[in-house]
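User: Fold this, then the next.

Assistant: Folding the first:
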Amino acid sequence: MSDEPGTVNGRFFASENAGRRVVVLDSATHSHLHASSPEFQAHTDVIVNASYSGVYCAHLLDETKPIGVIGLDCGIGKDGAGISGLWYFEAKNIPAAAADISILEHGNGRVLYENGIISRVNGFAIGLGIQPGMSVVKAAALMRDGSAESIELDFHNREVVYIGENGHNVVCTNSIADALPEDRDTNVLCTAGHTGRSVVDYIIGFRPFGFICSDGAMGRDRSGVSALEPTNAAGIAGAAVSAETARMGDGHSTYFDGVISAANDLALAAGVYVGQKATEAAQLLANRKI
């Protein structure tokens, strides 16, 4: 393995291990230069590039048949366009990550590689152990030495995140439709779909001890939280987080990032309030006495 950087044909070859390399580019638009070079081999390179991590750049980088990709997050931006390429690569089973632009330079791949800090990751990057806050150097090495083929993503994202005092735990899952029989009258579910009328049958049917979903940005007539009243009537405490604070479709984000925007009377009686962190609210629901 060699970690001594060297420049070949305008590219920065950062490291190599067992025939797999970390290749640094100043721009995603340089992908064709790398892919057409004599030493290029498909499915051997992690591409670190100082372009935004959007779909357009992902399409360009796909020409290099990468085993991993790291770019800039460009402040995420409107509609998440600065990192939308992460999901492009996730659909192709390729780990991808983006680095915080605030400490980096646009178009300077060497600075990105040597000084960058990861801010966003896709599921396959997480599967390799890459997390926000990690250095780009370490993240690139994990992509270089890891195997995405061994990763099976759990699209339900089910995980027990809190053990309650009275045998009632907090469980994250991406949808209330992914509830299990074991949740009945036992677990508080933090899920990531809206809290509208179509989820009422799921909630009452599965009957968790409590729930927190998304408000889906509310919608007309507060339809995004319309399930709170009928579930309250059914004796189930529930709340919703603002879609501005937590990612829809990601139950972990509901729990760790979400801020409560609405709650039914049973949840309010347990101490839940609008503006509260979902982490605290979920634990209150789990520990309430009935």
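Now the next one, as you asked:
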Amino acid sequence: MKLLALESSCDETSAAVIEDGYIVSNIISSQIELHAQYGGVVPELATREHLRNVPIVVREALNKASIKPSDLDCVAATRGPGLPGALMTGLRAGQSMARALKIPFMGIHHHEAHLYSAWINENKISLDDFKPSIGLIVSGGHTLLVLVEEPLRHRVLGGTLDDAAGECFDKTAKLLGLKYPGGPLMDKLAQRGNPQTYFFPRPMLHDKSYDFSFSGLKTAVRYFLEENPKLIEEDQFLYDICASVQAAIVEVLVGKVIQAAKNLKVSCITMAGGVSANSQLRAALSKACKVRNFQLKVATGPLCADNAGMIGALAWLKFSQGLSSDSLDEDPKPHWDLPENFANINKRAF
């Protein structure tokens, strides 16, 4: 089975080809340089760039996979959540191709694709060694804890009540005068700093719920900078505050996911999303899992960020499990909660 997938939920335009479960091409066109001029993603500009880039990445993905549109068996695209105009571009392109080729189409939930991207190994999604797990989805717009009870059956435990972890990184970086996107730059600068130099709050770390809140941490940094304006001129201060803020975010994320695994008696943890590429977060979670003899699976390379490979891999998994295709008239869902418990298997699409 050959499947084409599209991703356009925010500021990456991506197309991928999946063949019999393998990601044989995964083309990503980033808009970072464009949006960096404005200090963040501008929705109207993102939509314009998707309109320009979708035909380009689709053509490149098909060429790299050495197939023609007529060779495709199905098409998938991100349906939500995300920026309305951006989602519309990729979704309608995918639906149009499926309609023209008279093949099935499936709209995919962006966060669900992140959730299962941790199970992609050597460009193939495989749940042969699956075990119940706690999934941490951590990105610029969302922070979620999910219990995955069995393949394609999961339950949301908690999420962000305000700012997500990645959003906290980026907004803190902006307060420090760093360029967008600030999260990766903060990670780099933090490696030269001392995380114990300054103490910032760990919001909801000891709360009994599995929810997150990072707006208070961001506010604490803003007040600290207002009270110590001269410190910002020192290079070492920049390194130390990046390390200190990062330490607070990482401690909350690791603490919450480990507590969830312990409470629910689960011995496997997965992590995906753009912030999962943070070096300190990976190191801290790896150490915490090793101490407790938990298995840890983390999305790798470009699969951490927004990409069509994870969209296509999940669509392939669903099609192969017998889940039916979607209507070609479905609209985007910009505010779409992560669906739970895909227990009803419908007739096969093929």
